[in-house]
Amino acid sequence: MAHKIGSECIGCGACAGECPVGCIHDAGGVFEISAAECIDCGTCAGVCPTGAIKAE
User: Fold this and answer.
1) Which residues are within 8 A (CB) of 5 and not within 5 positions of it... i.e. 6 or more apart?
2) Whole-prediction pTM value?
3) Contact between residue 18 and residue 48 where contact means Cβ atoms under 8 Å apart
4) Residue 1 needs a FRET pair 20 to 30 A away by CA distance; which of 21, 29, 32, 53 works?
5) Which residues of 13-44 are buried (b: 16+ CB within 10 A; e: fewer)?
């Protein structure tokens, strides 16, 4: 299971800076998590200011 970034994403990038495996990438103003790389640690969800990141 991986985490997913929803439509609440404001493109701040806080999540990308915290990801220990670097699986979060800018997708043109919003961010996406590569499910194949995600280790499901949840660190990104903890720093998201809008609560856009949820476990799938």
Assistant:
1) 15, 24, 30, 31, 32, 33, 44, 48, 52, 53
2) 0.89
3) no
4) 29
5) ebbbeebeeebbeeeeeebebeeeebeeeeeb
Condensed to tens digits (0 to 9), the pLDDT of residues 5-20 reads 999 999 999 999 999 9
Structure tokens at 44: 């990104």
- Element at 16 (helix H, strand E): helix 14-18
Q: Tell me the residue ranges of DSSP E strands in the chain.
A: 3-5, 24-26, 31-33, 53-55
Residues 6+ apart with CB under 8 A from 4: 33, 35, 53, 54, 55, 56
1 — pLDDT class (breaks 50, 70, 90): confident
